[in-house]
Amino acid sequence: MTQKMGIIGWPLGHTMSPTLHNFLFERHGLDAKYEVWPTQPEELEAFVSRVREEKIQGVSVTIPHKQAVMKHLDGMSFRAKSVGAVNTLFWEDGQLFGENTDVTGLIAPLRALQKQPETALVLGAGGAARAAVAGLNELEIESVFIANRTRSKAETIAHDLAARVVDWEKRQTTTPDLIINTTPLGMAGDMQDMTPWPGEFPSGCVVYDIVYNPLRTRLLREAEQSGCLIIEGLEMFLQQGLAQFRLWTGQEPDPDTARELLRSALG
């Protein structure tokens, strides 16, 4: 019997998740299919009941359900509780659990750095920013700052996850070793020519943009031209997806072939 997995969100536009997971299922010889399930907020409770009734093997959770889904679960990982958001549903001992693989995905390329940064600045204050700050705490980064246009949203994350707030207008007066963009600035479409960091970069800093379409945002292009080490957002998307695959199947995927697939799909 074909196992069902998929993604819920609303609105649920183009997503690379089916491309990644269906490729991995086929490559590992698994009888499984990853589907797209647009789910409005008022439909969430009914959808979780469906997951239980049909024993759907795994679910990716995206906006606006990452927090709302938590009250419908039997339990959550320590990481998901710490972040206050769930992006993955999985079964454990017959119970439906929540995990946050956004954190796993975000810090995976940072773990590979030859030298860990001592200071980091997170731009934005949405769910991805929460995951970023939580991940930086896991890496034991000494000083973590967060800046957002709406300061109160940054203050909430800073309070919950022991970071420090920097005014958006003063963000470029900081000199962090690592800058992480979690805003949509630079994303394909109306914001493609925008950047959250117009101007000079701190010398020798690492610049990480979680936007993965386009692969090289304006932020990353300008950072690279300034001599910074850059990390593409595709890496976070890939690593969080691989972590989901491990949870759902217990198998270890090959990141290199999956990375090639996604880069090809993004053109």
From TrEMBL:
GO biological process: amino acid biosynthetic process; aromatic amino acid family biosynthetic process; chorismate biosynthetic process; shikimate metabolic process
Binding site for shikimate: T15, M16, S17, T62, N87, D102, Y212, Q240
Residue span, Shikimate dehydrogenase substrate binding N-terminal domain: 7-89
Record keywords, A-Z: Amino-acid biosynthesis, Aromatic amino acid biosynthesis, NADP, Oxidoreductase
SUPFAM superfamilies: Aminoacid dehydrogenase-like, N-terminal domain, NAD(P)-binding Rossmann-fold domains
Start and end residues of each Quinate/shikimate 5-dehydrogenase/glutamyl-tRNA reductase domain: 118-164
Binding-site positions, NADP(+): G124, A125, G126, G127, A128, N148, R149, T150, R151, S152, K153, I210, G233
Pfam families documented for this protein: SDH_C, Shikimate_DH, Shikimate_dh_N
GO molecular function, one term: NADP binding
Gene3D superfamilies named among the record's database cross-references: Leucine Dehydrogenase, chain A, domain 1 (3.40.50.10860), NAD(P)-binding Rossmann-like Domain (3.40.50.720)
Enzyme Commission designation: 1.1.1.25
A single GO cellular-component term on record: cytosol
Reaction(s) this enzyme catalyzes, per UniProt: shikimate + NADP(+) = 3-dehydroshikimate + NADPH + H(+)
Residues of the active site: K66 (proton acceptor)
Location of the SDH C-terminal domain: 233-263
Keyword Nucleotide-binding: no
Pathways involved: Metabolic intermediate biosynthesis; chorismate biosynthesis; chorismate from D-erythrose 4-phosphate and phosphoenolpyruvate: step 4/7
CDD domains documented for this protein: NAD_bind_Shikimate_DH
Family: Belongs to the shikimate dehydrogenase family.
Subunit structure: Homodimer.
Role, per record: Involved in the biosynthesis of the chorismate, which leads to the biosynthesis of aromatic amino acids. Catalyzes the reversible NADPH linked reduction of 3-dehydroshikimate (DHSA) to yield shikimate (SA).
Stated name of the protein: Shikimate dehydrogenase (NADP(+))
